[in-house]
């Protein structure tokens, strides 16, 4: 939200960086929330985004969330 306030528009790389950071520290809820925000803001996830999330979920034993993310990936239009 700070970026928006300053007139900066986050892109896929920006979101990927923050999602990766949240996954690294095990804050998967924040990573998922940011992923959802990304989509709601019209920023499309790419293969890197999904790879980050899948890795984060699998490394933290969240296999059900990983499977759900994989299903979303299969349905999405990636660049």
UniProtKB/TrEMBL annotation:
InterPro entries: PPR_rpt, TPR-like_helical_dom_sf
PPR repeats: 11-45, 46-79
Keywords, in A-Z order: Repeat
Pfam families found in the cross-reference section: PPR_2
Domain of life assignment: Eukaryota
PANTHER family given in the database record: PENTATRICOPEPTIDE REPEAT-CONTAINING PROTEIN 3, MITOCHONDRIAL (PTHR47941)
UniProt record similarity statement: Belongs to the PPR family. P subfamily.
The protein's name in its UniProt record: Pentatricopeptide repeat-containing protein, mitochondrial
């Amino acid at each position: 939200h700070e970026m928006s306030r300053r007139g900066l528009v986050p892109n896929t790389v920006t979101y990927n960086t923050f999602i990766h950071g949240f996954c690294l520290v095990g804050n998967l809820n924040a990573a998922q929330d940011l992923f959802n925000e990304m989509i709601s803001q019209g920023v499309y996830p790419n293969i890197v985004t999904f790879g980050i999330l899948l890795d984060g979920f699998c490394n933290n034993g969240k296999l059900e969330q990983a499977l759900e993310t994989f299903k979303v990936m299969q349905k999405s239009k990636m660049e």
